Amino acid sequence: MSVGFIGAGQLVHALVKGFSAAGVIATHRITASSPETGLSTATRLRKMGVNLTTSNKETVKSSDVLFLAVKPHIIPFVLDEIGPDIEERHLIVSCAAGVTISSIEKKLLQHQSAPKVMRCMTNTPVMVREGATVYATGMHADLEDGKLLEQLMSSVGYCTEVEEDLIDAVTGLSGSGPAYAFTAVDALADGGVKMGLPRRLAVRLGAQALLGAARMLLDSEEHPGQLKDNVASPGGATIHALHVMESGGFRSLLINAVEASCIRTRELQHLADQEKISAAAIKKTTLKKVLQQPGVSGTGVTVSLCVCKQPKSQV
Amino acid sequence: MSVGFIGAGQLAHALVKGFTAAGVIAAHRITASSPDTNLPTVAELRKMGVNFTISNKEATHKSDVLFLAVKPHIIPFVLDEIGPDIEDRHLIVSCAAGVTISSIEKKLLQYRADPKVMRCMTNTPVVVREGATVYATGTHAEVEDGKLLEQLMASVGFCTEVEEDLIDAVTGLSGSGPAYAFTALDALADGGVKMGLPRRLAVRLGAQALLGAAKMLLDSEEHPGELKDQVCSPGGASIHALHLLESGGFRSLLINAVEASCIRTRELQFLADQEKISPAAIKKTTLDKVLQQPGISATSVATKNRVNLFNNRSGVKKV
Question: Residue B11: closest CA among chain A residues belongs to which residue?
Answer without folding.
Answer: A231
